[in-house]
Design goal:
11% strand; Dna Topoisomerase Vi A Subunit, Chain: A, domain 2; DNA primase DNAg catalytic core, N-terminal domain; DNA Primase, Chain A; 5-stranded antiparallel beta sheet; 5-stranded mixed beta sheet; 16 strands
Length: 602
């Protein structure tokens, strides 16, 4: 079992993994000036980008959720990996062979991500080769009947799991993979007589993450229910590299088109993704045996980011049956988390994209997407369809059911339009519909959390000085002259003390010595936050803000001294009073000097 990764290798990986290149695999970054890049935060939902990356420093920070760190911290949090797994993944990315300390101690099984991905990749190649053999004829026939030729199968790496107990197991063992690795990858399982393949006599679709690594599989049974009593589709179990609620099938192929066309089409299965792409809808993706949820939403939102906001369309292709309508209503609830316009494309006959392409060709699939309707409209009409609106009772009952839906629309500008549309669909007066919607929460506002107000001019000044000290330490020469009470905000003062104790530093060392997560977060935040100046950051600007902070600190001390003098009796405490008064005069003079320096007058 491998021990601890050598420190020099960790440093090498950190230094040779450009943070903007790594982040760009997950988030669309835009230049923000001053050597900064920004994008939509992958760690929380937001309407405009507050996620900043500073390539020259190798750090990121989100000013919305306060998450920050270096390239290793980014991958650890986003992919839910351990430190070792993350370093191994980044090493694999740049083709670097890691070295480990001998005699490392581990409290659990060693999980090497690159080995699990390698096992999955080798399995995918094995399955693809098996599809070409005579024993897989029924698998090829299945694909042909659904409109997929040999080239289509090859483009999507479709394979076949042979009708054997341990064909894959023996193959991968011969390539040097251990039972532990194959089990962790979800490729094998324990049988009555030892390890056996997880998939048998099934068509296989490799599932890749957004970067293109094979992390799991979807398997469609080919035998009848009498012979194979398992589910129609069998997906990989949860593994260290495969989290089904964080994976969208086809995203590795579609991500560039999604970002380019500002559109993503959500379909329901592997063959639907294939059919859509072959028909020219190259923005299609699908979930892997789970409902479309919050993690999927975060992935889609990141890809639909524009320079300062979300743009584009999210189109769901639900079936036209009751299950499809239920899925649409569930998506309606999630839609509040989208800023993009959300639509539903339903074929009246109930056919999915694969069936539609088989029956009517590629044009029919493209037309299905083109005929999309807003999700709000689809959800509302789905509810109305359950009532006989030719009768007064039916109209009232439908309104009572639909009004809460309209009340949940958070975009206040949309709500009046849907009130008007609903009145038309029901054949009722707009005022009556509007009143019903308001009673169901349509006029409520969401109040955000109260946060510490850091927009105070003094706190902004303190922050600016800390940024200069962190980003341009060689220019902040008068830092050493700052008064002890220069920083009024506790966390800022903690950072000041850390900087004073550290002397010469690099940012990572500073973070390592910070004694709280809050302080660590502040450091990464200030390292990437742009310095507030219209032009170039000059010596004059730096000297002026340091002087201004000294002026503020001196004013604070002067106020305290005046308060002390007011409490003293100059007759009874003549000597003490005179000493303090002399100190006050000196401080007043010093403050005038700093004020002139702050104004650039000397």
């Amino acid at each position: 079992m491998a021990g601890r990764i050598k420190d020099e290798d960790v440093t090498y990986i950190r230094d040779h993994s450009p943070i903007d290149d790594v982040v760009s695999d997950y988030v669309q970054l835009k230049n923000a000036g001053g050597g900064q890049k920004k994008g939509l935060c992958p760690f929380h939902d937001e309407k405009s980008p507050s996620f900043h990356v500073t390539p020259s420093k190798g750090f990121f920070h989100c000013f919305g959720c306060q998450v920050g760190g270096d390239v290793i911290a980014f991958i650890m949090k986003l992919e839910h990996l351990t430190f070792t797994e993350t370093v191994e993944r980044l090493a694999d990315r740049i083709g670097y062979t890691l070295r480990y300390e001998a005699g490392g101690v581990s409290s659990g099984p060693s999980i090497n991500r690159s080995r699990l991905v390698a096992a999955n990749t080798a399995a995918s190649i094995f399955y693809q080769e098996q599809l070409q053999l005579p024993a897989a004829q029924h698998g090829r026939d299945f694909l042909t009947k659904r409109g997929f030729d040999r080239d289509a199968a090859k483009n999507f790496n479709v394979g076949y799991a042979p009708d054997e107990w341990d064909g894959l197991y023996k193959h991968l063992k011969g390539k040097g993979f251990t039972d532990e690795e194959l089990n962790l990858a979800g490729l094998i399982k324990e049988g009555s007589k030892g390890m056996i393949d997880r998939y048998r006599n099934r068509l296989i679709w490799p599932v890749k993450d957004i970067s293109g690594d094979v992390v799991g599989f979807g398997a469609r049974k080919l035998a009848s229910d009498e012979i194979d009593t398992g589910p129609k589709y069998l997906n990989s179990p949860e593994t260290p590299v495969y989290k089904k609620n964080q994976i969208l099938y086809g995203l590795d192929l579609a991500k560039k088109e999604i970002a380019k066309n500002r559109q993503v089409v959500i379909v329901e299965g592997y063959t639907d993704v294939m059919a859509a792409h072959l028909a020219g809808v190259t923005t299609a993706v699908a979930t892997c045996g789970t409902a479309f949820g919050d993690e999927h939403i975060r992935i889609i939102r990141r890809l639909l980011m524009d320079a300062d906001a979300f743009r584009g369309e999210v189109i769901f292709t639900f079936d036209g049956d009751a299950a499809g309508q239920k899925a649409a209503l569930r998506a309606f609830e999630d839609d509040q988390k989208f800023v993009a316009q959300t639509f539903v494309a339903v074929e009246p006959s109930g056919m999915d994209p694969c069936e539609l392409r088989q029956a009517h060709g590629d044009d029919a699939v493209r037309n299905l997407v083109a005929r999309r309707v807003p999700l709000f409209e689809f959800a509302i009409k789905s509810v109305i369809a359950n009532y006989d609106i030719t009768a007064a009772e039916g109209r009232v009952n439908a309104l009572n059911q639909v009004a809460p839906l309209l009340g949940k629309i958070r975009d206040a500008s949309l709500r009046p339009e849907y009130v008007r549309l609903l009145a038309g669909w029901l054949g009722m007066e707009v005022d009556i519909v509007s009143t019903a919607v308001k009673k169901n929460g349509g006029a409520t506002n969401v109040v955000g959390e109260k946060k510490v107000n850091l927009t105070d001019p003094v706190l902004m000044l303190e922050r600016e000085v800390l940024k200069v000290r962190l980003q341009l330490p060689t220019l902040a020469t008068s830092w050493v002259d700052l008064e002890s009470n220069a920083f009024s905000f506790t966390l800022y003062n903690q950072l000041r003390l850390l900087l004073d104790n550290q002397g010469e530093f690099n940012t990572q060392e500073l973070i390592d010595k910070a004694d709280s997560e809050e302080l660590k977060s502040l450091i990464t935040e200030l390292v990437v936050e742009p310095i507030r100046t219209d032009g170039e950051v000059s010596d004059r600007y730096i000297n002026s803000i340091l002087a201004r902070l000294r002026e503020v600190a001196l004013s604070r001390s002067i106020a305290e001294i005046k308060s002390t003098l007011q409490r003293l009796n100059p007759v009874e405490n003549e000597v003490q009073y005179q000493e303090i008064f002399t100190q006050l005069v000196g401080m007043e003079a010093a403050r005038r000097v700093q004020k002139e320096l702050a104004l650039g007058e000397s």
